[in-house]
Design brief:
The complex is a heterodimer of chains A (376) and B (389).
Chain A (H helix, E strand, L loop, with lengths): L1 H14 L6 E13 L4 H5 L4 E15 L2 E10 L2 E14 L2 E8 L32 H4 L10 E12 L2 E10 L13 H5 L13 E11 L6 E12 L7 E13 L2 E13 L6 H4 L13 E15 L2 E13 L11 E16 L2 E12 L5 E11 L1
Antiparallel strand pairs in A: 1-2, 1-16, 2-3, 3-4, 4-5, 5-6, 6-7, 7-8, 8-9, 9-10, 10-11, 11-12, 12-13, 13-14, 14-15, 15-16
Chain B lengths: L8 H6 L5 H20 L12 E4 L6 E4 L13 H6 L11 H4 L7 H16 L9 H10 L5 H4 L7 H10 L11 H9 L23 H19 L8 E4 L9 E4 L36 E11 L4 H9 L2 H5 L7 E9 L5 E7 L3 H11 L13 E11 L2
Antiparallel strand pairs in B: 1-2, 3-4, 5-8, 6-7, 6-8
Helix pairs in contact in B: 2-5, 2-9, 2-10, 5-8, 6-13
Chain lengths: 376, 389
């Protein structure tokens, strides 16, 4: 991995200021998370300072073929966030091959800290910044989800709008033998992510359409996404993710909303009474799956150099939990966020936000974020 | 035909803010002329204070439309028009679609009327401030501000302000759809002269004093009649055209070297956008028909593959073809692509204002297949308008 990063940096230096067939871009965010309400939360959150950095280079080999490579440095160390080739036959048909972020949902397309104005991500796409993230095992699917595979995608431009579609075959998230949930750490483990754990790919698709509301760039976008497959080495445990998203820009204000749900099989195990927190149901059987779903609704409004935003999001989980889990069979967390991103100079933004968590199984919490983020 | 002299509306505007009553009376009269011209399928294309002469009449000042030199009829292959190709009008009064080189119709004249009324009511203020390019860019991207925003202390009656605001909407569909509709809106006002009341008041019942409108309607008939009936124009001059129907007043036109031919009444002006020189049309050294737009370079800075951006730019070729200037020029256009996957903050420089504005409009429609996943993408496009080989 380190060699990959070195290679990217070397290439980046070589192409900086070179001809127009190459582009390079990067981003950096340093975030400070403070949790003043509950000392226990400190142990279950990445409080303190975290840094995320990304560097991406694209190279156009021909008019219709390009290669993109993106390296990230964050909680998992250095990671290849993208390494793919794009082959485009037409606007309506292209194929993307390599390590990439498949099309799932709306937010993953703007997951880079240089784009979204909050320091963290919606709960359904959380990748470690939510409080109690270990108890919840993150959200539905951490964003950006990066995986190895092939994606067919295209765009149909029409008068007054567009239609985007994508379908993909990926390695898929990983889980352990007799797993009770997806193992996101193993899925992103730099030492393992280049191989599939069960050689059975997952499949997914996304369909979205945008309608221009005027010629000033105001539009409404609707999207539908789904992904399904198996995640354990025995190829016995299924998962299905499905969701819908909407984005509306109107009079300078952006509104976004998204719903995402995941049904995940769980291995009951050879000794379920010791493994599970709750006993069998009235039919004498233990839950063999759980259902997790969530949403967010947010609004952003530019006011001079300040982008003010507010978000309401939530995560809900239904189903048995492992013995020792602080969650119940019906857990819920709702979060209320308000904040502002202030443009300091050029594209450098100072982000600040306050988050109020309401857990039904755990004490309520407050989190404070202060970050500096910039693309470059 | 008689030679007519008279001060243009510019003189009156230079004298200061005009009373709303006077403004709407003059505007109504101008509309009467436009009604007939538009019904005859003629679009003035260069309506502005300089082209409205105000002459004394027995009942008060009478506006006279002049300089139909840029007037255009659709369905005709007027050589002069197709050669000049692309612009028309004076930038300060030309409609956004006119500046952008898009097809125009009679509603472009209504926009120009609105801009003229804006100046009359404000003593010469323009809705947009700034350098020419900024103004052109602003007008092609948003509605004109209301008079009360530009000159809040003038106290222009809201109903009058509403009429001007609707006339100066960026999108033709948002404007009044005909000069007749403007007349109806004005007739719905009731402005009381300052001499009769301390302040001007507006009521909703029809106003009296339609004689002026009738007179101007006749003027309009005369304008159209001249275009329809004149077999061969004399040399360019300001002449008064005898009124072909019972009407109290002549209309003054400046005869173009090649007046529009007689056509069936239609309001749509051109299938291909036409552009006129920014000021007085001058015959170009090279016909724009012989020029084509060549994309010389697309520089991309940011997190999109350059090929993706270039394809997006090239999708605008047909729109660029409508921007061909009168003579070879090179234009540099810049824009930004963000998460909305479409160009914003589009700028163009290097060519005449009309061409730049046309390119701004064309590139405003640039859309990419994907959004940049890091920050925004900055794009610089070099376009050369060169002769065909």
């Amino acid at each position: 991995m380190k060699w990959l990063v070195v290679a990217i940096l070397a290439c980046s230096a070589a192409v900086a200021g070179a001809d127009t067939q190459r582009t390079i871009a990067g981003s950096l965010q340093l975030d400070y998370l403070a949790v003043p309400t509950d000392a226990d939360s400190h142990e279950a959150a990445f409080d303190g300072m975290t840094v995320e950095a990304a560097l991406k280079m694209s190279f156009a080999m021909t008019r219709n073929a390009s290669v993109s490579v993106k390296a990230c440095f964050a909680c998992h160390g250095f990671e290849a966030a993208a390494a793919y080739v794009d082959l485009r036959a037409a606007d309506e048909l292209a194929v993307r091959i390599g390590r990439l972020t498949p099309e799932l949902g709306g937010f993953p397309q703007r997951a880079d800290p240089s784009i979204h104005h909050s320091s963290d991500k919606p709960l359904i796409y959380d990748m470690g910044r939510m409080l109690r993230h270990a108890a919840w095992n993150e959200g539905i699917l951490p964003a950006p989800w990066v995986d190895n595979g092939v994606e067919l995608l295209g765009t149909r431009f029409v008068d007054g709008g567009r239609l985007d579609y994508a379908a993909y075959v990926m390695s898929g998230p990983k889980g352990a033998r007799d797993a009770a949930d997806l193992d996101f750490v193993a899925s992103r483990d730099p030492g393992k992510y280049y191989v599939d754990n069960n050689s059975q790919p997952v499949v997914g698709a996304r369909l979205s359409g945008a309608v221009d509301l005027d010629s000033d760039g105001h539009a409404i976008t609707l999207g539908l996404s789904a992904m399904a497959g198996r995640y354990d080495p025995q190829r016995e445990l299924d998962f299905v993710i499905a969701g819908a998203d909407i984005a509306l820009s109107l009079a300078g204000v952006s509104f976004r909303g998204e719903y995402l749900a995941r049904r995940t099989d769980m291995a009951i195990g050879s000794n379920p009474s010791a493994r599970w927190k709750y006993g069998p149901g009235s039919d004498g059987r233990y839950d063999d799956h759980f259902f997790k779903h969530g949403f967010y609704a947010e609004a952003e409004a530019p006011i001079g150099r300040v982008d003010a935003f507010a978000r309401f999001d939530g995560l809900l989980r239904f189903g048995n939990v492992l013995e020792g889990s602080p969650l119940s069979s019906s857990s819920r967390v709702l979060r209320y966020t308000a904040g502002a991103a202030i443009r300091i100079v050029a594209d450098v933004r100072l982000k600040s936000s306050v988050e109020y968590y309401r857990f039904n199984d755990l004490p309520d919490d407050v989190a404070l974020h202060l970050a500096v983020a910039t693309p470059f | 035909m008689e030679y007519v002299e008279g001060p243009s509306l510019v003189t009156l505007i230079d004298d200061g803010v005009m009373a709303p009553l006077r403004v709407v009376q003059l505007a109504r009269a101008v509309c009467e002329g436009l009604v007939y011209a538009h019904t005859a399928g003629i679009v003035h294309r260069d309506l502005k204070p300089e082209n409205i002469l105000v002459t004394p009449g027995p009942g008060g000042p009478v506006p006279r439309l002049v300089d139909f030199g840029l007037a255009l009829s659709i369905d005709q292959s007027d050589a002069r028009l197709t050669e000049s190709g692309m612009t028309m009008g004076t930038p300060a009064f030309a409609a956004p679609e006119q500046l952008a080189g898009k097809p125009i119709d009679h509603r472009a004249d209504l926009y120009a009327l609105g801009m003229t009324m804006f100046e009359m009511l404000t003593g010469g203020l323009q809705p947009f401030e700034g350098q020419l390019m900024e103004v052109v860019s602003a007008r092609t991207t948003r509605d004109a501000p209301r008079i009360s925003q530009r000159a809040p202390k003038l106290g222009v009656p809201r109903a009058v302000e509403d009429i001007v605001a609707r006339l100066t909407r960026r999108r033709p569909d948002d404007r009044f759809q005909s000069a007749r509709a403007v007349i109806d809106a004005i007739d719905a006002l009731r402005l009381v002269p300052e001499a009769e009341q301390p302040t001007e008041q507006i009521a909703t019942r029809p106003a009296r004093g339609g004689w002026l409108a009738i007179g101007l309607a006749a003027c309009g008939l005369a304008v159209a009649g001249w275009f329809l009936l004149a077999p061969a124009p004399p040399s360019p001059a300001q002449v008064a055209v005898p009124v072909p129907v019972a009407a109290p007043r002549p209309v003054v036109v400046e005869i173009p070297a090649a007046p529009p031919a007689r056509v069936a009444p239609r309001h749509r002006v051109a299938r291909e956008p036409v552009a006129a020189p920014i000021e007085k049309p001058a015959r170009p050294a090279e016909s724009p028909r012989e020029l084509r737009a060549r994309i010389d370079g697309v520089d991309v800075s940011g997190a999109l593959p350059p090929g993706d951006v270039r394809r997006a730019v090239e999708r605008q070729r047909s729109a660029l073809a409508r921007c061909v200037p009168a003579s070879p020029q090179t234009v540099v256009a810049q824009f930004t692509i963000g998460e909305a996957r479409r160009a914003r903050d589009v700028r163009a420089r290097g060519a005449e204002a009309g061409t730049n504005a046309c390119i701004v409009s064309a590139f405003g429609d640039v859309r990419t297949e994907a959004a940049p996943d890091i920050g925004d993408v900055k794009v610089t496009v070099r376009i050369a308008f060169v002769g065909s080989t």
